[in-house]
Amino acid sequence: MVDDEAVVRNGIRRALEGRGMTSVLAATGEEGLSLLEHQAFDLVLLDIRMPDLDGVTVLHHIRSRHPGTPVIMITGYPTIDTAVECTKLGAEDYLVKPFRLADLEASLSKLEGRQTPDVEPRPAAERGLRIDDSQDRIIGESPEMESLFDKILKVAPTDSTVLITGESGTGKELVARAIHAHSLRKDREFVAVDCSSLVETLLESELFGHVKGSFTGALQTKHGLFELANQGTFFFDEISNLSLNIQAKLLRVIQEREFMKVGDQKKITLDIRILSASNRDLHESIASSAFREDLYYRLSVVPIRLPPLRSRKGDIPLLVEHFLHRFSNRINRDVPQVSPDAMEILQEYAWPGNVRELEHTIERILILEDTEILRPRDLPSFISQRQGDFQMFSEDPLSLEELEKQYIRFVLRKTQGKKTRAAEILGINRKTLGMKIKKYGLK
Ligand SMILES: Nc1ncnc2c1ncn2[C@@H]1O[C@H](COP(=O)(O)OP(=O)(O)OP(=O)(O)O)[C@@H](O)[C@H]1O
Ligand SMILES: [Mg+2]
Asked: Is 0.85 surpassed by the pTM of this model?
């Protein structure tokens, strides 16, 4: 039950209790959404007019994240438009406050008579966070990803700047698109600019636009990307590559919320939501004076850090399934199965290129291998070979300590972290193993 008025919440709760139903109360849309992320509900009663997130927006989110959950809208300010909109969005019913218990009961009975939606686990292609109306989704079900989805949905409807960091291929651009898609600016432009691919002089006129004749070659007046993105979302990819000169200009634009075309005097008001991404640690860039600290704070009001794939191996099977489906459909073949030992190898590999590397690997396998079941021998050798091998004699000689550390890590991996078993193999007692794990910072 999501309603900003305590009287309404408590009244309805009591009424439902009388019918033997338990309810959980949320005072804001955001609170409601975050409850839904962690628990399944049979029904959502949703107020429309609320101070932060309004009910219609919340309904949007519920439809995309929890399509099976029925929603009844309740409002003190009925209008035909919202009623129609809510119905279009799939609300089950629309009650006008104050309503009698009998009205609510009638509405509930209608629902009860309906078939309950099946609760089969959804296929990979439907799990994760929807990005837009295309098939693209951010796939993941690990706690790390669940909390990422949570954060995206929380920050999306605000206008705060978001700095997305993470290794290459972890999905930074997907996250930026998801934030836009779940924001109130979703029907406006999402403009992405890769800061590393533009020459500085051009970048300035690309961003701000220029007037005819402002420099050699400026034959026509040109609208910049800022103007194009106005009222929408602007995404600076690889932000660490911005030159200090552009950084200074950008900072001014963000502060003053207006800008001018190159060679122009006329100020244009800027209304954009700024997202940026970097796979480099900006603190290092700040330390080496390559990035302005003041700009950093402006851009990272909400920081989002994407975990590397190796730290959320639990997502690998789901991602494999997702990409197998996607590429099989694309080339019109049956989706192959993955044998358990092959999946284990895929899960053990460190994926230095993260999800992008996994995506490309699956695509390549599907093109090259024509089997119904993928077995270890169908995997590229660089993946299957590395599988937990312990290289006692690598190219560079190791100190005894380093060797011990690596060997303990190897044994722990083999025993899947079971310390008693590992200690047995290593021939030391469990306590000594514990100390060594701590000493070497092993996990
Ligand atoms: N969680 C995910 N679910 C589905 N696809 C993903 C996921 N994460 C990444 N991808 C896919 O992996 C590829 C790389 O993602 P993306 O371009 O967003 O990474 P990035 O972090 O911006 O990388 P880079 O720093 O190299 O630009 C894309 O094809 C994207 O669709
Ligand atoms: Mg990227």
From this structure: no
